[in-house]
Give the backbone structure.
Amino acid sequence: MTNYDVDVSKIEKEVKNIIDVCDDLIQQENFSELKKYYAEDAVLVVKPDMFVQGRENIAVAFKKIASYFKNSLKPVEGKMRFVIAGDTVLVLAQTFIQASNEALEASEYSSERRATYVFKKIDDSWVCAIDNSYGTSLLD
């Protein structure tokens, strides 16, 4: 049950679709297209002690992340919950990082994550403002 006047299912569908498109673009390593789905001042948590800000820096970071995973990176979303407040959506997501066995074995980071994403509606489009695939594990 919701107590606010927004079309929750429509917003959830729109944001989920953007996340799916972004996951596909990451797998395709099309970072020039991917950055269009981020706010100009967006923040990406690259790893627990490294954050980058801005579309251009996010595109560069994703290129390095792809290389880290030996160009076999494929993010897959599991369960998702959406918390909507006007033009802002908090997404809590079960995210799986799939990659070649060699890349996953070499990684020091978990391949199953409890991600948190924040989306903002800017100029009638949803864009990612905060991309944190590590979620609250940043507190560990």
